[in-house]
Design a protein that fits this description.
203 residues; mainly alpha; 2 domains
Length: 203
């Protein structure tokens, strides 16, 4: 705002000085008697018309820039707000339980084959929701799938999310990759979103 008024007064000062110069020049070129009132008003009228156009354009441009800046600030605020919702969701009890259960396999994963991993996931007790590994995987990967959709649509601050979730997601993706690549467990659309996020963050 301060800069806008600075430019306004600068333009006005240039106009006033130009007007004074033109009037002085006109009186120097001709005798005062030869300068008719018509010529005097014509010169000043043209100058004021030019000034009006310049000032009008200046205010229009200034307002457009100011509105654009306000819109950008609002967009960034909304992105940060949407990003915080993922952090809130991360601490949701359902997701915490799912994360804890999938994390238990981190050390064991080194010693079991892909087939053993798939078998363990399929045979995890379906009756106990807290020990259902497949359900836990679905909950966790749905979280990242939604995150990728939000990133692609410019709804969140990707840098903020990447700094917090990048290594956790990549580790989990690599750990359960055999399960993700099996179409009977993970549908194509979900796999596509997860692959995109993996490639995006694993650079």
């Amino acid at each position: 705002m301060k800069r806008k008024w600075t430019f306004f007064w600068l333009i006005t000062s240039v106009f006033v000085l130009s007007l004074i110069f033109l009037n002085i020049d006109a009186f120097k070129r001709y005798d005062i008697e030869q300068v008719s009132y018509f010529e005097f008003f014509k010169i000043n009228g043209v100058m004021f018309a030019i000034y009006g156009v310049v000032i009008s354009s200046f205010w229009s441009l200034s307002n457009s820039l100011e509105n654009s800046r306000t819109l950008n600030q609002r967009t960034e605020f909304d992105k940060n707000s949407n990003s915080m919702k993922f952090f809130e969701k991360w601490d949701d009890s359902l997701l915490v339980e799912a994360r804890d259960f999938t994390r238990e396999l981190r050390e064991e994963r080194k010693d079991i084959s892909d087939n053993e991993l798939l078998k363990r996931i399929d045979e995890s007790p379906k009756s106990d929701k807290h020990k259902n590994l497949k359900r836990s995987l679905v909950v966790c990967f749905n979280f990242y799938e939604l995150m990728n959709v939000a990133i692609k649509n410019g709804m969140v601050n990707e840098s903020l999310l990447r700094n917090s979730f990048k290594f956790i997601f990549i580790d989990m993706f690599d750990r359960f990759k055999p399960w993700l690549e099996d179409e009977k467990h993970c549908n194509k659309d979900s796999k596509k979103e997860l692959d995109e996020l993996y490639k995006r963050w694993n650079k």
